[in-house]
Amino acid sequence: MDNIKAVLFDFDYTLGNRYRYAYLSYSAFIREYLPDITDEVFIEALRQDMMYFDEYGNAGPRHVIRSLENKYGFSFPGVDFWQWWVENQGKYACLYDDAVSTLDYLKKKYRLGIVTNGVTYSQRLKIRNCHIEDYFEHIVVSEDAGIKKPDPGIFEYACRQFGLKPEECLYIGDMISNDVYGAVKAGMKAIWICKDEMRENMSSIPRISTLKELTEML
């Protein structure tokens, strides 16, 4: 990877510990909208079900709330859970433990950026609350770009922001379908970050389980 000049990251599940802040967000929703439930085991069951319905962020908040209503017979009249999610998730945003040290190392050698799907307000709030904005030369959010991963166009757009060719950029993300496939189709090199050791990978795409491993590779 000698010709790499910029390293670009996904945010959720890559730099940001979405497991943690999704769990905290769902906990906050339960406290706010189901305050009469005091059984701690039942509350934990609700949290775990919401995380399951969430499908690693792929299902969407409206699916989560509908699934909760269907399973438990709850009703949340007048609650726009999508809007609640956009406005509140960023309050609980946090990074993986090795994110800052890895960014410190890479910043000395490469130009850094983020390419993330999502609502601009929510994604930028998360990044801002994690206090890492200054590491990145460009932060590309799909709502602003008008293109979503895995469309190669959003990766090509990000490369143009840097004034670099795709082959001069490396992308790190947690989803083969959205992150790795889209980046490779755009002509970039890519690394899959996957913390689940049970997940298989029969492709030639390099795989890491922690961000710290990047300091040994780059």
Structure, explained:
Helix content is 45%, strand content 12%. It is an alpha/beta fold and 218 residues long. The N and C termini lie close together (8 Å).
CATH homologous superfamily classification of the largest domain: HAD superfamily/HAD-like
Distance between the termini: 8 Å
Class based on secondary structure composition and strand pairing: alpha/beta
Whole-angstrom Rg: 18 Å
CATH topology of the largest domain: Rossmann fold
Nutshell version of this structure?
The chain has 218 residues and is an alpha/beta fold. It has helices at residues 18-33, 40-54, 61-72, 81-88, 99-107, 120-129, 142-145, 152-162, 176-185, 214-217, and strands at 6-9, 111-116, 138-141, 169-173, 189-193, 207-208.
